[in-house]
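Students often ask why inverse folding is considered easier than folding. One informal answer: many sequences map to the same fold, so there is more than one right answer. In these notes we will look at a single instance of the problem. The structure comes first.
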């Protein structure tokens, strides 16, 4: 991957036409008869990072931009291979990183971070987990040692582990009363089986968590060769030296290599799931199927198709199921891109008495994409929405770093976004109809209903 630094866009992408009249005072009159003028988006300029590799094998990417003396630092680690016998290790270890180290208790960690006005969080994802720090530059000399302690010397105290297990079991019991939560769990399990993607925690799973297993998992996963550091903000040379120096010295790999390979998933043979809740006033619906991920050349165009179907407030599903039929307050479709696969899903909660009718209308909208061309006026609206959303998502240097993560962990380069923008601007209705024929077969959809049917 070739990396260099360029500047972020500063020009406006839209302009409005205003009629102004001047008498003794000047006032502005908005012409409501004509739509505001707009200009096509020519290209998307993304900030590209500088890269260096530390002697211990850790890759560091820097997005240097902005005037505020603030940085966000992310330590990203690949999740270890999923073990069905101990399914919660990845998420439990990541979640409990801030619960104590060899020299700091959980409260001391929190106090030190708060004292310097910093913000610390741990985040679990299907493919990677990360530790994130927001800190003023002038306080990094005090906050970085806390992070290093967490990443190199977390001990998962027995008392804190017991509290974690008890709290998580209680949260699970509350969440299982929510129809949409149950539907999402069943859907993921059906698509991705006994893998990290399909995992739905059960109360008994928490009983498998043992401190010695968590320590072993921690030592194998949280090591420099399995770490990518992404820094964004105002990064002066001394700041970069402080960060790299802190995490290059005395941080070395363990003798056991990080195994971040994952088992292949197998989707269920059963495609219909119904969990009856006789007292339910609403039924949760989730339907869809495994599809391609971001690395496939069809992915950008399929995102356009998904947006037409249910990817924004003016989508067909919203117009039909909410606006026309009044079956729900909200419905949408989305796409996920994971390392091994992806998915396309439709999700909503509707009145229990109209559940069957809603599913019929959803399937009708999917079939229309396969049988009729999308009108150019509708497609133009979707193009403008998607390009505007992309520009709007690049509001600061942190957003640019987020876009980079999508590329880097998918093994892609920045020309992906060039193709993405080009596809949005040029894809034809005939191409989208062909994609619908290829990917949107409602007979192959996995359908999950929780409530009444």
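Output (designed amino acids):
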């Amino acid at each position: 991957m070739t990396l260099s630094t360029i500047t972020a866009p500063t020009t406006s992408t839209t302009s409005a036409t205003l009629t102004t009249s001047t008498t003794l005072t000047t006032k502005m009159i908005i012409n409501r008869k004509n739509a505001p003028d707009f200009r096509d988006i020519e290209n998307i300029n993304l900030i590209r990072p500088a890269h260096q590799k530390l002697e211990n094998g850790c890759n560091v990417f820097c997005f240097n931009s902005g005037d505020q003396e603030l940085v966000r630092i992310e330590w990203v680690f690949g999740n270890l291979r999923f073990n069905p016998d101990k399914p919660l290790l990845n998420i439990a270890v990541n979640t409990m990183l801030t619960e104590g180290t060899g020299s700091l208790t959980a409260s001391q960690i929190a106090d030190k971070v708060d004292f310097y006005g910093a913000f610390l969080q741990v985040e679990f994802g299907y493919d990677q987990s990360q530790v994130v720090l927001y800190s003023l530059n002038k306080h990094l000399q005090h906050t970085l040692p806390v992070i290093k302690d967490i990443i190199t010397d977390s001990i998962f105290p027995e008392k804190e582990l017991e509290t974690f297990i008890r709290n998580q079991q209680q949260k699970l019991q509350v969440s299982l009363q929510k129809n949409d939560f149950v539907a999402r769990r069943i859907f993921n399990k059906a698509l991705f089986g006994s893998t990290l993607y399909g995992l739905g925690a059960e109360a008994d799973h928490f009983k498998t968590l043992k401190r010695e297993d968590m320590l072993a998992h921690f030592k194998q996963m949280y090591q420099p060769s399995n770490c990518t550091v992404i820094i964004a903000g105002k990064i002066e040379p001394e700041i970069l030296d402080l960060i790299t120096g802190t995490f290059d010295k005395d941080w070395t790999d363990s003798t056991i290599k990080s195994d971040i390979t994952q088992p292949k998933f197998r989707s269920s043979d059963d495609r219909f799931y119904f969990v009856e809740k006789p007292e339910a006033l609403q039924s949760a619906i989730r339907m869809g199927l495994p599809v391609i991920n971001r690395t496939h050349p069809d992915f950008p165009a399929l995102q356009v198709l998904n947006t037409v179907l249910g990817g924004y407030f003016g989508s067909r599903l919203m117009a039909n199921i909410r606006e026309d039929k009044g079956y729900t307050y909200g419905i949408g479709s989305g796409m996920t891109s994971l390392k091994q696969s992806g998915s396309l899903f439709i999700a909503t909660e509707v009145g229990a008495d109209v559940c069957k009718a809603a599913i019929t209308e959803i399937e009708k909208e999917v079939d229309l994409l396969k049988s009729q061309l999308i009108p150019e006026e509708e497609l133009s609206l979707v193009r403008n929405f998607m390009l505007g959303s992309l520009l709007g998502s690049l509001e600061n240097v942190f957003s640019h770093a987020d876009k980079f993560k999508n590329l880097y962990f998918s093994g892609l380069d920045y020309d992906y976004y060039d193709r993405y923008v080009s596809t949005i601007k040029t894809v034809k209705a005939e191409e989208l109809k062909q994609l619908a024929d290829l990917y949107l077969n409602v007979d192959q959809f996995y359908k999950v209903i929780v409530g009444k049917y």
